[in-house]
Amino acid sequence: MPDADELVANALAAVRGTDVRLAERQLDHLMVGTGATDGTTAVDAALLRRLVRGVARLWPRGWQPVDVDRITSRRLDARAARLVRDAMAAQRRDQAEPVPAWWDEQLRELAAEARSDNDRGVLAAWSAREGLDRADALRTAVDALALVESLPPIAVLRPPPGSAGAAPARPAGTARSGSPMLDRVRALLAKAESTTFPAEAEALTGKAQELIARHSIDEALLAAGADRGDVPGGVRLSTDAPYAGAKALLVQEVAAANRCEAVWSDDLGFTTVLGWPADLLAVEVLYTSLLVQATSAMLRGRAERRAGSGRRTKVWDESFLNAFALRIGERLRAATDAATDAADQAAAQTAGAERLLPVLAARGEAVRERLDTLFPGVTRHRLSARDAEGWSSGTSAADRASLDVGGGRKPRQVPGRPDPR
């Protein structure tokens, strides 16, 4: 009779193949276990051990807990994601090497907590919480294992556990999320999301971007004065279906307005944003809010469309969201430019007036160098806008929802991006 590890390996190989009946037979073998008194418990422990080893191998390959949780939910389901959280918690429990504070913060946010001191009871406890019978529990566990072991390497944005620099007091590329400025920005954006008056949303979002731009400039000058030798960091934002391309475009536009670079990984369901700590935090907060505003405006626009127009909703929605993203980007950049000009003029009144623009230029170059290092083969992706009515409505919605804080310029036309004209 095969041992537990061999049974798990056979089931995994069958799931990866195309023979459905073979996969079911191997699942039956897992159900039976090794034939020993504790044969089924041994199978559970073997499954969890291999799953724990699988997630541990992901960390040096660029994956973070939130990334693994996101893709498990995307490709499998919430139940499988909760099992993987238990595996990540078990792996963290046994992690002897240094672990950065932000890593534990991610696990806490995912509610990934070790629920047992050994591997034998974890799978049974998880299946009981989920209300699964043994066959469904084993099937889900094998599917989760197959996914975890199939994930490709991605960019390493922060030192993973056990690596050099894994546990500094404040990791490079991170920013405080509880600053008074950020609290004010979140409050302004919450009001912009909830108001039914477009002019009010415009003013609130404009004020938020103005605060963000001023704070970014202050942080840039402070960091330059301290000469800490940091390098730009990165975050990954979900750009999953539906309308993944439009979401990725919105991230790109918000990132560009805040001196960041963005790269979309369509097959993995996220966009990586590279930049300095305060700017990355700004992109996260703004993207989340503007996605809410864009979705609300799109749904209102749908309701206002002429009945019986014959246009497909999906095509209209994509055109609407693409236009919204481009228009928002134009206005966000105008707000950033206005804040930079104001800061530059203020600096002209003091000693060292020549410092601001060179500092910003140097930081921008560092972000681009980081992009070239992490994504040497990045390419442009062309998004289509096939519905003129949707495009016009999206542009108008962005005019109402975005900014008007002085200045303005025509958006830069990037290869692979639809021309708004």
Automatic annotation (TrEMBL):
Question: Per its record, how is this protein called by name?
Answer: DUF2786 domain-containing protein
Q: What does UniProt list as this organism's lineage?
A: Bacteria, Bacillati, Actinomycetota, Actinomycetes, Micromonosporales
Q: Which InterPro entries did the record assign?
A: DUF2786 (IPR024498)
DUF2786 domain span? 181-219
Residue ranges, annotated region (Disordered): 159-178, 385-421
Please note every region of biased composition (Low complexity): 163-178
